[in-house]
Amino acid sequence: MIRVVLPYHLRTLARVEGEVQLEVPPPITIRAALDTLEARFPALRGTIRDHGTLKRRPFIRFFACKEDHSLDPPETPLPAEVLAGTEPLMIIGAMAGG
After folding, report:
1. Average pLDDT score over residue span 65-89
2. Mean pLDDT value of segment 80-86
3. Residues 61, 70: contact at Cβ < 8 Å?
4. Are residues 33 and 56 in contact, defined by beta-carbon separation less than 8 angstroms?
5. pLDDT at 98
6. CATH number assigned to the domain comprising residue 24
7. Using CA atoms, how far apart are residues 85 and 53, in angstroms rounded to an integer?
8. Distance between CA atoms of 11 and 26, rounded to whole angstroms?
9. Is residue 34 part of a domain?
């Protein structure tokens, strides 16, 4: 069981409060976590990743264990702490501006 933290607007779309707990089939990678999240909450499809290419949307970032995993390949395994449930996978809406 892994823990996923979503930004407020995605929690609103998914109609959840707080963290989401997911049972992700092995191997537990970034892609597997996102596939499981979108399967459980279909309203999130297309919000985190593009519908067709499944590439991360530009202003979405993935953090785990205080490290940015946004540019890691989707097949990258999640850190052991995330797999153990002691740390969450955080999906963050990035900010830009001047």
Report:
1. 97
2. 97
3. yes
4. no
5. 61
6. 3.10.20.30
7. 29
8. 25
9. yes
